Amino acid sequence: MQAFEKVCSLNELVANSGVAALVKGRQIALFYLDDQVYALDNYDPAGKAYVLSRGMLGSLGEALVVASPLYKDHFNLQTGQCLEKPELSVEVFDAKIEDGNVWVSVE
Amino acid sequence: MKQRIVVIGNGMVGHSFIEKLVASPQGQDFEIHTFCEEPRLAYDRVYLSSYFSGKTAEDLSLVKPGFYEQNQIQVYLGDKAVSVDTDLKQVTSAKGKVVAYDQLIMATGSYPFVPPIKGNDRSGCLVYRTIEDLQAIQASAERGRVGVVVGGGLLGLEAAKALNDLGLETHVVEFAPRLMPVQLDDGGAALLKRKIEKLGVKVHCSKATTEIIDGENCLNKMVFADGEELETDIVLFSAGIRPRDDLAKEMGLELGPRGGIVIDNQCRTSIQDIFAIGECALHDGMIYGLVAPGYAMAQAVVDQLNDDSAEFTGADMSTKLKLMGVDVASIGDPHGTDENALCYVYENGPEEVYKKLVVSPDGKKLLGAVLVGDAEDYGNLLQLKLNDMELPDHPDSLILPSRDGEASSLFGPEALPETAQLCSCYDVSKGDVIQAVESGCCTMADIKSCTQAATGCGGCAQLVSNVLNHELSKRGHEVNTDICEHFAHTRQELFHICQVEEIKTFDELLHSHGKGHGCEICKQASGNIFASLWNSYALEKDKIPLQDTNDNYLGNMQKDGTYSVIPRVPGGEITPDKLIVLGEVAKEYKLYTKVNGGQRIVLFGAQMNDLPAIWQKLLDAGFESGQAYAKALRTVKSCVGSTWCRYGLDDSVTMAIDMENRYKGLRAPHKIKMGVSGCTRECAEAQAKDIGLISTESGWNLYVCGNGGMKPRHADLFATELTQEEVFRYVDRLLMFYIKTADRLQRTATWLDNLEGGLSYLQQVVIEDSLGIGDELESQMASIRESYQCDWQRAISQPEYRQRFRSFVNVDSPAPQLFVQERGQIRPATEQEKLDGIAVEIREIA
After folding, report:
1. Cα–Cα dist B127/B663, whole Å
2. By a Cβ cutoff of 8 Å, what residues of chain B touch chain A?
3. Which of A47, B80, B281, B691 is deepest in the core (most CB within 10 A)?
4. Quick one: A45 exposed, middle or buried, by C-beta within 10 A (0-12, 13-18, 19+)?
5. Are B575 and B590 in contact (CB under 8 A)?
6. How far is it, in rounded angstroms, from Cα B408 to Cα B424?
7. Mean of the per-residue pLDDT values of chain A
8. What is d(CA B386, CA B365) in angstroms, rounded to the nearest whole number?
9. In what helix (H) or strand (E) does residue B187 lie, and over which residues does it extend?
10. Cα separation of B258 and B287, whole Å?
11. How confident is the model at residue B409 (pLDDT cuts 50, 70, 90)?
């Protein structure tokens, strides 16, 4: 059984964009896209700073991605994989919307 | 052992020869020496008159800085070659330098012909050839009021423009019954005369000057054969050129009966190992007074030195130019010397256009043409002539206007043979352009930098661009101008779609015209378009996803995720009180401070959650956002101007402040920078800006589309001697036109380089309002100006916006950031410093 933690109310998120949250001492990037919430580590391993939550969202081919605001590397919202640099990826976390709130599971 | 090549003369052709030789396959096998009598290296004599409309000697230079040094070319500057021993094969200079040669190139050019008129050496009697001549003209003009040019040919009219630009009452005196007697027929010359006289220049044809004597109201008086007289201060002789062959004569080179060094098809003179090129050379009884044939001769010699067979077999004297703003072109034989030749004439009185075709008796081949007032057909007609192409059934269709709105394309670029020369200034053929396309060029700017086509007189720009586009589409290159995978449109198309359909949100645009979820490219472009069109605000909920972080947080993100804060300091003028506030805010929030390149003070290292409080303090002190994070007007740099400076001609600071306040907040395809200098010393570097103003005695000179940065580009002189009102009108129109037509992230410099028709087209649109959109552009600019609001003020005015600046959505604490101290201020810690444990959090810094 996964332990989900309530992070915030859904209406604190802006559709098609991201915010940062602090969950269990970790900086998490939350993205709200197509009625779903995606949770990734907020640290951009290419730019080496906690900024992913402030990147722009979109799609490249089939993949839903966030573009890091620093050097515009794209990370897959579902897998965390960096599209330009295969050796880089960020951790992804399970996230869900329930009762109008956003829940994240950070193990 | 390198072959030593000595070039006598560093004019346009001599320099072109050296450039071509260095770039040739065996370029490294030559040791090059050149004598340059003038105190400066080769410069552009074709555009000499632009010296009086703002260009400097440096602007006119044809030599890329460092070119001679980098290629180890020995230049004897300000030293004239005075004798050549053709047996010992060595050159001796005025300063006593003796240089031996393997091959000698005579590129001694020409001198202005001064008719043998009594009094032609009086004070105020001048010629027009070198920059020193220009300086002499300028000095005389300061003392005088009236100027007369003797000679109504091509150069004479250029010279007349120069005198006119200097503010003199200007006259042109021509011996023949019409202007430009060689290139034009009576009809074309008559129209040209009318148009030039409208500009305030008085033209006197069929006038023979008999002598020049003391004037009564002016320095001089010209007396004509018909008994009339003309008082003038300056008499500027521009009655043709004569080859400079005095040195050649001493050397014993064969000269023509009326001068000129005789050359054969290889450009060889009568003595072995000596070539002659350019205006000093006489080929087949002809001295070529244009630069293109000189370049062709230079190329022929370079090819031979590379063991290639090459010939110069004469050159086409067709020419197209703008004389005092009037388009004039002449092709082949415009007079119909063949008495059986057929003529077609089109004359449009109200629009002041004259066109004439001279066609072979069978109607199949073009022999010559004259175009005055509208020379757009020049490129097409010239190709028909040069390539001996067959004419359409009704040759007059070539010059008749097409009224149905369809551009008349009687033959496409496909019809041209590969050998067709598109650019005569740099001898670029259709084949050269094709080769450039094959090596990856796909824009006009690429073609210009790769082949130099269209960078001389620019007359071929339209044609080159047609060939380019044709070649691209032929290669299935489908010239993909789609902005990204989500929209099959360019930025310009999206702009029009949004404007016409009044689309104000990205979702609407994506659903009606795109696919997928969009990306940072199309989203930012759309956000930028909405901002330009509707002045939409970045922090509106549906706009947040369309902006990069810089726009969303109204600051520039730095490498560690913190932001910089740059308040607007219009014109770089700031009161001590405001300076103190900046210092106090920086101290309170422990920000790193630095003066940036745009005369502003930047506060670095602001954490996201501190931004609203920092802005509040700055707003309270009367600051506003400097929009340094946006694709918008950044800064208007200025010198201190006439209020303090001993040399300032006008109040550049007030002008800069007015400009900055007028255009602040304007969103554009890319950032816009401006500069205002109070005099020609140009301390504000206005010529490196998108919009630059330089004060002159009689108003502001406006420069446009310059750029510093990665690929510097000098701004082009756009209009001269403007009032502030005119400046605003032109800049309003120009910027709005840029916003509407540029590609995403295209600075004004590349925009202009890719704009069909280039600078003169832009001048027509903005100054002459040729598209009839001037009022519309101005009113759009006005409505954007009226709805201006400070971004920071808006951001902190609503709790909903303010909320966006929390570091975390679920906790009220700042994100940890690590810094180290250097020279008494903070800077982001490096990865190593973080590992070494010497980085500290901001609260630990005293």
Report:
1. 45
2. 485-486, 516-520, 522-524, 541-542, 544-550, 552-553, 557, 559-561, 803-804, 807-811, 813, 815, 831
3. B281
4. middle
5. no
6. 23
7. 93
8. 10
9. helix B186-198
10. 10
11. very low
Chain B residues in contact with A55 (beta carbon < 8 A):
520, 549
pLDDT-based confidence at B438, cuts 50/70/90?
A: confident
pLDDT in tens, B27-40: 899 999 999 999 99
Which SS3 state, helix, strand or coil, does residue B443 take? coil
Please name the helix (run of DSSP H) or strand (run of DSSP E) that holds residue B500, with its range, or none: helix B491-500
CA distance B20 to B7: 13
CA distance A93 to A78: 9
Contact at CB, A61 and B815, closer than 8 angstroms: no
DSSP calls for B462-479: HHHHHHHHHHHHHTT-TT
pLDDT beyond 50 at B90: yes
Q: Is there a contact between A21 and B811 if contact means CB atoms under 8 Å apart? A: yes
A 80-99 → B contacts, CB under 8 A: none
- Would you say B638 and B679 are in contact if contact means Cβ atoms under 8 Å apart? no
Contact B810 A21 (CB under 8 A): yes
Q: Do A14 and B524 touch (CB under 8 A)?
A: no
Q: List, in sequence order, every beta strand (DSSP E) within B241-373.
A: 241-243, 261-263, 274-276, 281-283, 319-323, 326-332, 342-348, 353-359, 366-372
Measure B439 CA to nearest chain A CA, in Å: 26
Query: Which residues, in sequence order, are CB contacts of B510 under 8 Å at separation 6+?
Result: B486, B516, B517, B518
Query: What span, in angstroms and rounded, lies between the C-alpha atoms of B367 and B688?
Result: 45
The DSSP H or E segment spanning B421 is strand B421-423
Ranges A17-31, B7-21, B301-315: which has the least confidence: B301-315
Contacts of A49 in chain B (CB under 8 A): 559-561
Q: How far apart are CA B256 and CA B686, in angstroms?
A: 50
- Are B147 and B163 in contact by the 8 Å Cβ rule? The answer is yes
pTM of the predicted model as reported, rounded to 2 decimal places: 0.57
Q: Is A22 in CB contact (< 8 Å) with chain B?
A: yes
> Which residues of chain B are within 8 Å of residue A69 when distances are taken between CB atoms?
548-550, 557
Chain B residues whose beta carbon lies within 8 Å of the beta carbon of residue A67: 519-520
pLDDT beyond 60 at B535: yes
Residue B256, judged by CB atoms within 10 A of its CB (0-12, 13-18, 19+), counts as middle
Tell me the two tokens of residue B422.
């598109």
Query: What is the C-alpha separation between B498 and B512, in angstroms, rounded?
Result: 11
Contact (CB<8Å) A56/B544 = no
B356: Cβ contacts below 8 Å, ≥ 6 apart: B185, B187, B188, B334, B343, B344, B345, B346, B369, B370, B371, B399
Neighbours of B497 (CB within 10 A): 17
Query: CA nearest B196: which of B235, B157, B230, B233?
Result: B157
Alpha helices for B520-632 (secondary structure H): 520-534, 549-552, 576-589, 611-620
Write the DSSP symbol of residue B190.
H
In Å, how far is A58's CA from the nearest CA of chain B? Answer: 4
Shortest alpha-carbon distance between residue A34 and chain B (Å): 9
φ, ψ (nearest 5 deg) of residue B8:
-95, 110
CA end-to-end span of chain A, whole Å?
11
What are residue B350's DSSP bridge partners? Answer: none
Nearest to B517 among A12, A21, A64 (CB): A64
Distance from CA of A1 to the nearest CA of B (A): 24
For residue A50, the chain B residues in CB contact (below 8 A) are 561, 815
